[in-house]
């Protein structure tokens, strides 16, 4: 009887571990479409390699004091009156055309009046915006704690380029980016 109980307990533990592993999977487990998704490799200006600065930032720099995983985050200091500040990376349309792209980011902020979020925008060959999604509508407390933002964009078939990024806008303050990634949504994620 005890032997049977131990076997059942082991079987139960194995099933729980498998389910936790499956639950932990996310679209970000798919191969990354962006360079340097952890934002840890930065150039002399403080910009993460593979990304360019977007908008008007007073300062962009690695920050070892506000982190998601004990490593550096990227701090963006933003001044009131500027439209927005952040980072962006361009993807070629043939990599994503007709697919659903998932953009995930770990973001924090220090002011309640400056929304932060991840976003994606598709452009046709004439440079017209033909698709857009963002996570700015999410309520994010101004407590410097990282929270996961995620959006999906069904990339139109006529897409020439896709921009993905993370930004802060609306008021002065600071935002921290603890990683920004983009991937193709897997077919199994739609079921």
- The total number of structural domains is 1
| Main sheet overview | 5 strands, antiparallel
**Beta-strand percentage range:** 35-45%
Q: How many helix segments?
A: 2
Extract low-pLDDT stretches: 4-28
Shape: globular
Task: Tell me the Rg in angstroms.
Answer: 19 Å
Structure class: mainly beta
CATH superfamily: Galactose-binding domain-like
The H-and-E topology, N to C, reads as: HEEEEHEEEEEE
Structural summary, described in words:
By secondary structure, the protein is mainly beta. It has one domain: Sandwich (Jelly Rolls), CATH 2.60.120. 14% of the residues lie in helices and 41% in strands. The strands form 2 sheets. Strands 1-4-9-6-7 form a 5-stranded antiparallel sheet. Strands 2-3-10-5-8 form a 5-stranded antiparallel sheet, with no helix packed on it. Strand 6 and strand 7 form a beta hairpin. The N and C termini lie far apart (41 Å). Residues 4-28 have low confidence and may be disordered.
Descriptive tags:
14% helix; Jelly Rolls; mainly beta; five-stranded antiparallel sheet; 10 strands; 191 residues
Write the layout of secondary structure elements.
Blueprint: H1 2-24, E1 52-55, E2 57-63, E3 73-78, E4 84-92, H2 93-96, E5 100-109, E6 116-123, E7 129-134, E8 147-154, E9 161-169, E10 173-184
Antiparallel strand pairs: 1-4, 2-3, 3-10, 4-9, 5-8, 5-10, 6-7, 6-9
Question: What's this model, at a glance?
Answer:
This protein has 191 residues and is mainly β. It is 14% helix and 41% strand. About 13% of the residues have low confidence.
